[in-house]
Specification:
Chain A has about 325 residues and is mainly α. Helix content of chain A is about 75%, strand content about 0%. Chain A is globular. The two termini of chain B are about 20 Å apart. The chains are: A mainly alpha (about 325), B mainly alpha (about 300).
Chain lengths: ~325, ~300
């Protein structure tokens, strides 16, 4: 039997054991006939073979590093290790040191606040834009959609260069505009040196980047809101707020919930934006968020143990936050 | 929407004065919303315009105290300055990593999607849950040990190492995306072909496979966008002498701000962004559907 046929018999029939590999295709069809209507086959080992490449890639690229990270988080990487000594087991010391570290908690709190502010702004503005798309006539709506699509498509670093230039202390358009509007003297004002102002710039950029996704998803959901329900509401004399609160919002809520959860996770991982801004003028030690802090601990200071422990903390935090997303997806899709 | 509601309104209360005033109010309102939409569109797209505007001007124009809002001193010099050896080295690196990532991700995801969509087997749902969970792991949460791993395997600062991390990073979402496409092709089509004498493999490749082409393209483009734009892992596992395009672009802006050649930076941004924007337009709808599938479908 040639390999292709073997594949066919093992993988693509409803048989449950590999012993019947020798079956001819005709026999297989005869056996299969009664259950034809069932959508999914009971595969033998075939299905598993098909999963091998994906599982192998995920094991090497994600699984192994994860296991290794857990191990590293229990180890000490000091000066001796830099000269080749094997890492030393220190149990939970990394975690103890980490959780007693005020700077680490500072980073965690800052990240959570940054995430909360950004998510809230993104959701509000995005949903608002979606409502505007819904109400605007065709041409302005398409214009708005094209603009959103353009910003969404923009590679993150290309967008960062534009924003860096807009906020540039000397040649930036923002300083020029503020000065010329008479809002004070912003000549050579440096936006990145003060942590709060640094986060303001980061927030503007992150919100600008994230709004299009929210706007499009919310708009897609809004177009599904049943027209007759809205009409009925109008006849019953519901005002705009009541229509939003009792008709529109409940029907777009499932979509918004999923977007909200994705947004939370995405706004916790703003490594690129923060790292970029730190590189062009921010003070790293005062502006770290989760990602850049792990990077500095691990790659910068070779504190692999501490960095691993902190990264695992971030991982667990993310998984807790996304558990509901995965659950919602599984529930929504019949898997 | 407003016209539909308007029509419905008119049907319900045809001829009444109330409807007429309402319609009037609606259309002024519509114009108002239109104006708001156009304003937002212009504000939001402004940074994109600013990149293009900057790329087409000479350095002196961008260093003058008053900004020039349109490229009056139009010139393409900036592109000439930017298209040097560094750029092409980075382009080669980015293309290699991206193409490897796309090829591997599409092939692995395709067979995995066929498995979870067409078969029932023990561990199927667990596999899906693992895939969805991995998709949510931020690169920040694993990059330290990935960095150490590549170091140990002598893959640090290599195309192979970076591609490996990229494939693993995009695979979960490509599997999920393709699964939806395979689900969308009815098994009955294949079975009909088999009744007509096709083998199962042949039926799959002649009937189902062509119908999956849009899905394969969408997932390939998704992998392309991810790998092409990726910054975080490239910062961690690549050295400054071996930069992908995003790192190259950033490299031009980390000098002191008096010395930054803004037109060149903007020209670089245009070069990096154009292929992305083109590809993005192709797959945008599919990607959104993949991310929120279920929620919007209702």
């Amino acid at each position: 039997m040639d390999p292709q046929n073997r594949y066919e018999n093992v993988g693509w029939t409803r048989k449950t054991t590999t012993k019947r590999v020798e079956m001819t295709t005709q026999e297989t069809l005869a056996v299969a006939a009664p259950v034809r209507s069932r959508r999914r086959r009971r595969g033998g080992l075939g299905a598993y073979w098909l999963l091998v490449p994906a599982i192998a890639v995920l094991l090497i690229g994600e699984g192994y590093p994860l296991v290794r990270q857990v191990i590293m988080s229990f180890q000490e990487f000091g000066r001796a290790q830099q000269f080749g000594a094997p890492p030393e087991w220190i149990g939970l010391d990394n975690y103890r040191e980490l959780f007693a570290d005020a700077q680490m908690w500072g980073v965690v709190v800052r990240s959570l606040v940054f995430c909360a502010v950004n998510v809230a702004l993104t959701m509000l503005i995005g949903t608002g834009f979606a409502l505007i798309m819904l109400r605007a006539p065709r041409v302005p709506r398409v214009l708005l959609q094209v603009s959103m699509l353009l910003c969404w498509a923009m590679p993150v670093i290309a967008a960062m260069t534009a924003w860096q230039w807009l906020f540039d202390s000397r040649y930036g358009l923002i300083n020029w505009t503020l000065t010329n509007l008479g809002l004070g003297d912003f000549t050579r004002h440096n936006w990145l040196i003060e942590p709060l102002s640094f986060y303001l710039v980061a927030t503007v950029i992150v919100v600008w980047m994230s709004v299009p996704f929210v706007a499009f998803t919310a708009y897609a959901a809004l177009t599904q809101v049943p027209e007759d329900a809205l009409e009925a509401g109008q006849i019953d004399g519901a005002n705009a707020w009541q229509r939003w609160r009792f008709i529109i919002y409940p029907s777009i809520r499932p979509a918004l919930t999923i977007v909200l959860m994705l947004q939370i996770v995405w706004d916790l991982r703003v490594f690129a934006q923060i790292h970029y801004l730190q590189g062009v003028g921010g003070v790293p030690s005062e502006t770290h968020l989760l990602g850049t802090y792990i990077y500095t601990l691990g790659v910068g200071q070779s504190e692999y143990g501490m960095a691993s422990a902190f990264a695992l903390f971030v991982l667990v935090l993310t998984l807790i936050l996304t558990g509901r997303y995965v659950h919602a997806l599984l529930k929504a899709e019949t898997v | 929407m407003s016209t539909d509601t308007l029509a419905a309104d008119t049907r319900v209360r045809a001829g009444t004065d109330r409807a007429r005033t309402r319609r009037l109010r609606r259309s002024t309102r519509g114009r108002l919303w239109g104006a708001v939409a156009v304003t937002i569109a212009l504000v939001w797209a402004f940074p994109a315009y600013w990149i293009l505007n900057g790329a087409l001007q000479p350095v002196e124009a961008l260093r003058s105290p008053t900004p020039s809002f349109v490229p009056t001193d139009f010139t393409l010099d900036a592109f000439g300055r930017v298209l040097d050896g560094d750029f092409f080295a980075s382009l080669r690196l980015s293309l290699s990593v991206t193409l490897i990532c796309v090829a591997l991700a599409v092939v692995c995801a395709f067979v995995a999607a066929v498995a979870i969509s067409r078969f029932r087997f023990r561990g199927r749902v667990s596999f899906i849950i693992v895939v969805l969970t991995i998709q949510m792991i931020p690169p920040e949460a694993l990059f330290i040990s990935q960095y150490r791993m590549l170091n140990d395997w002598n893959l640090y600062n290599t195309i192979a190492g970076l591609s490996l991390l990229y494939v693993a990073a995009v695979l979960p979402f490509t599997v999920w995306l393709l699964r939806g496409f395979v689900d969308g092709v009815p098994v009955e089509l294949e079975e009909a072909a088999m009744v007509d004498g096709c083998s199962r493999v042949r039926a799959f490749f002649t009937i189902t496979f062509p119908l999956l082409a849009p899905g394969l393209i969408a997932s390939g483009v998704f992998a392309f966008l991810q790998a092409w734009n990726e910054y975080t892992l490239a910062v961690v596992v690549m050295e400054p002498d071996n930069r992908t395009l995003p790192l190259w672009l950033r490299g031009m802006t980390t000098v002191s701000n008096e010395a930054i050649d803004w037109p060149a930076v903007m020209a670089g941004s245009v070069l990096v962004a154009v292929p992305v924007i083109v590809f993005f337009m192709i797959v945008q709808t599919k990607m959104t559907q993949g991310l929120v599938s279920g929620a919007v479908k209702g």
